[in-house]
Design goal:
Keywords: Membrane, Transferase, Transmembrane, Transmembrane helix
Pfam family, one: CDP-OH_P_transf
Distance between the termini: 54 Å
Family: Belongs to the CDP-alcohol phosphatidyltransferase class-I family.
Helix content: over 70%
Oligomer: single chain
Protein name: CDP-alcohol phosphatidyltransferase family protein
Order of helices and strands: HHHHEHHHEHH
InterPro entries: CDP-OH_P_trans (IPR000462), CDP-OH_PTrfase_TM_dom (IPR043130), CDP_ALCOHOL_P_TRANSF_CS (IPR048254)
Number of strands: 2
Mean pLDDT: 89
Length: 243
């Protein structure tokens, strides 16, 4: 029995397990109103994304990539980076002011994030253009963006930020933009280092340095800003490449 070929799939299943735990903590946050559960959910999604990176790494290292592993990876990501962020958006709608009315169906709009994630994951499996870079925002990055929003609410002292993230119109805009950017035909630069020279990695170095500065100064608020910065920097880079 070749144990090596099962290691990447096992790591993928650990990613799925982390996603399931994150969903449980989000559910607890809704039941108890204890926002610390969102923090635990965020950490488990981060852990799942960590394992999501290493399943592919070990599959390439052991040369055991397979169609089964590809499908398992997407199914695991569907929970960790699809269901979990959709559930968080649902909970944010549920706990927000009712600018869109008191219709009980309104919070379910948050699961548009899950639908957008599902479409992206299915499309990614058949899109041969995304081997070295991305077209549209990867689901893990989108998940980090969404999962960070309750933490921004918890740890930010800004009344403006409180008003923004409890406004249902804003939440609807975030939801729709999230589903769109996941599937938009926007090339995004990869963070993988292929050549170990400063000249060939200027974009990645600038992004990482600014991201580090944002994390140090803004903590959880830095996470959504970093994701937005990543998309904008890619758009600007694409404009220069076309010239």
């Amino acid at each position: 029995m070749n144990i090596k070929k099962h290691i990447p799939n096992l790591i993928t299943l650990i990613n799925l397990f982390c996603g399931c735990i994150a969903v449980v903590f989000i559910s607890k946050a809704l039941e108890t109103g204890d926002s610390s559960n969102y923090e635990f959910a965020f950490y488990f999604v981060c852990l799942g994304i960590f394992f999501d990176f290493f399943d592919g790494f070990f599959a390439r290292l052991f040369k055991v990539s397979s169609p089964l592993g590809l499908q398992l990876d997407s199914l695991a990501d569907m929970v960790t980076s699809g269901v979990a962020p959709g559930f968080v958006m649902y909970s944010l709608f549920l706990n927000s002011a009712h600018e869109l009315g008191t219709n009980p169906a309104i919070p379910f709009l948050g699961f548009i994030v899950t639908l957008g994630s599902c479409y992206r994951l299915a499309n990614f499996n058949i899109d041969t253009r995304q081997t070295d870079s991305f077209i549209g925002l990867p689901t893990p990055a989108n998940a980090l963006f969404i999962l960070s929003l309750p933490l921004v609410l918890k740890f930010s002292d800004s009344l403006l930020m409180l008003e923004i993230l409890t406004n249902q119109w804003v939440l609807l805009l975030i939801t729709l933009c999230s589903a769109y950017i996941l599937n938009a035909e926007i090339p995004l630069f990869a963070l993988k280092v292929k050549k170990f020279t400063v000249k060939d990695n200027v974009l990645q170095i600038v992004f990482l340095l600014i991201s580090l500065l944002l994390v140090i100064t803004l903590q959880y608020l830095a996470i959504p800003l970093i994701i937005i910065f990543y998309v904008l920097l890619s758009v600007v880079n694409n404009m220069f490449l076309k010239k």
